[in-house]
Amino acid sequence: MPWTRPRRSLLPCLALLACGTGGGGDDDSAGADMPGAAPVVPGCNEPVAVECVDQMILDLSLHDDRVSEGAVETTRDGDDFVTVVDAQAGGYNEAANNPWVYVRFTRDGAERVDLDDESALESMGWDMALRRFIVRLNGGSSGPSCVGAAALLESDYDALEAVPDGIVYASDAYYTDDCTIVNDSSGLPGSPQVSLGSWWEYDGCVQTTGVPHLIALSDGHVIKVRVEAYYAEDQDGCNDNGAPGIDSGVFTLRWQYLS
Amino acid sequence: MTGSAAVAFLCLSAHAGRPTDGAGLYAFDDADDVDWVDGPSGLVRVHYSRSGPNETRLSDDDGDGAPDFPAMVASTAEDVVLFFGEYGFRPPLRESDLGLPPLGGSDAFDVYLVDFAGGADGQFAVDACSGAVCSGHMVMENDFVGYGYPSLAEAVDVLTSHELFHAVQSAYNADQPVWMSEGTAVWAEWLYQPGVRDFLYFSNAYLEDTGRSIDRPPAGVATAFSYGTALFFAFLDEHVGPWAAVALQEEMDGRDADQALEAVAAVVEAGGMALPDAWSTFAEWNLAVGARAGEATSYSFADQLGEPTLEKSFEDRLVEDDNRFYPLAATYYQLTHGGGELGFATVDDATDVRFSLFPVRDGEADGVVGEPRVRWRPDGPGRVSLGNLPAGGYLLVGTYPHPASQSRRVAFCVGPIDALESCLPDDQPERGAVEGGSTGSEDERSAGCSTAGGDHPAVLLLLPGLFSLMRRRRLATRESLQAY
Is residue B97 classed as helix, strand or coil in its secondary structure? Predict the structure, then answer.
């Protein structure tokens, strides 16, 4: 192994050199086939205690004393909502020192939920947590609720008008029984195999795949979601040429209720 | 491929390519005109490009025919190799030690000056291994144009000492966990060139996240925390002894990466200490740094460091927290005391968690801290008197100084002895017997509270057998999950 000494100000560049695809599999409904993924029955009222909290606090650098101030702004675009989430967390070098952004999807749009990370492990009040390129859902390893996802690798977001038959939703399941973290296929240590991992791949920068996901919320309703951008500007340049865009960690999510 | 996997699969019959082969992430281009210069003793050969994409600095002010910059790199690298040798470390393995041909044209250690394009600035790469003992070569930024080092000389000092220390490590065991391999390499920068800013920068990154176990760096290939563990190795050097760094490498010889903490413990024990005691001291040294340095025992360079991040700062004279004390980590608090009897209370089993309380000089809220007034180790729920203490600012250190797989979660209060109700059960029991404590060696397991240089004898008020009566008042919301 080469010991590469990173330039201090450019740790993020090196950290992503080894990246491949962000996660997911080759099948259309990736969530159903992800190793270790637990199927989700949409709808739940009671929280379930999260396992491996002690490990997760260190593995995911969770905080109990700060709440993210990352902006979450939603606008309407026809039948879709478009939500921009500032999950920069101070940039790559500082991300471990900053909290995750928690988001709840509602009929009026998505909104930020102001929780510290450890409180979020006991709260059903959020659906999605974001920090840098990792997106967790409130269920399984990530939270006490039952939010799960299915990646429709061969589908087009715009063509999805209803929930297809036979969809199986997967909750985040990135800990083994002995609380060893299960990483995704990106090669990044500590990049957990989340159920919503098929939105990105890496080739010099974080490229969006355009893969639509269905997310089953805790109230049983289902939304379709597509990550349109990870950079505040010039995602296309990243997708087309491998050149990083401007302001990484600023997500643009397009989503719509399907049920 | 991970480091351990790479080491496991390399063998003597095959070796990784060199930058002159166009191999690796950082390599010469076909268009480069590559030349080399040897160091004065012939221990190091530096390969550089006279023209092409990786062209180095070519000025030759001394007119010896070799560009000054690669010659300086060769000279400095040789000085580093000799310095580490004089310190007691094994020299980097040569190709011939592992039966390889002279991959760089000689048996000298090879350094390649290649353009890193700003993404990094140095690398040690393994050529071949016998078990976990490996030889390799070093790749370094070709000109440092656009890098932020204060001087070219400092850049070369940092890079050569850091990467060559990886070569030294590889003479013992190339399969060391990142927090140890990078931490000791950054410490080696400081050893070679005391005052180097790189060490201070990374040490401060550690001090920003002391609540994290030293052997559990954050996610990411290259995190500042992993490099910042250098501070711990500087502590071993100054507190345990200058021999400790060499002894640690010797201890790692033949060990697996997941036995690194055992190696650390063995070194500390060889110095006549137990790891928990040494770690507790490390946690205390890390308080008395930066603006708090100058009076309490700490590093020789304590005033050059930044202060550790405080978990919380309390101005209402009562520290109240529910904290996970991770193994081999430390948490810091600030409080203002109005004067009088100060106490500690918890409803939890805080066995093996240690606390110490430092006064701020001259009664200020924060600033230079004196030696700790009291140290204590609660071994169960209850309340402890910390003695009658004068008014002023205090800094509290809490640490769980044992290797372990789980944290100790402790809800506790520190404040006026009669203001600790939130950390006591509803049915507050009678105070138990008063015991004098003595400070802590590893063998003294009983709950204790000791004075530590102060003139206020501390006493321990035990509340035995109350665990079943305790109510985790403040944790109620954690135990009954919230539903929205």
Answer: helix
